[in-house]
Amino acid sequence: MASNLYVGNMAFTTTEDTLRQVFSQYGTVTKVSVVMDRETGRPRGFAFVEMSDGGDAAIQAMNGALLDGRTLTVNEAKPREGGGGRY
User: Which of 8, 13, 27, 48: CA 20 to 30 A from 35?
Assistant: First the structure.
């Protein structure tokens, strides 16, 4: 079953390649998206990792794990509700 994971509290230096490498230990990673700030172009400190399998194992292993000097928060991503931002 496919999973979309939220990865928070990331170091600003953590890359999509790093996340793909780490999460692929637990299953098949299909997509990684590090969220960037629109104004500055710098990472915002969180990402989304889509996995075709192994999502639950990745959450168990990576939630609270240390990566690039930061303790990660990893859980199942919740669908976006409403707009937010600009009108």
Answer: 27
Q: H or E stretch including 59? A: helix 55-62
**pTM recorded for the entire structure:** 0.89
| For the chain, domain boundaries | 3-76
- Biggest CA–CA distance in the chain, Å, is 41
> Is a pLDDT exceeding 70 seen at residue 23?
yes
Contact partners, residue 39, CB within 8 Å, separation at least 6: none
Q: Which amino acid is at 31?
A: K
The residue to which tokens 């969180």 are assigned: 46
Handedness of CA 67, 71, 34, 5 (dihedral sign): positive
Amino acid making up residue 28: T
Q: In the predicted model, what is the mean pLDDT of residues 81-87?
A: 58
Considering the segment(s) 3-76 as one domain, its CATH architecture is 2-Layer Sandwich (3.30)
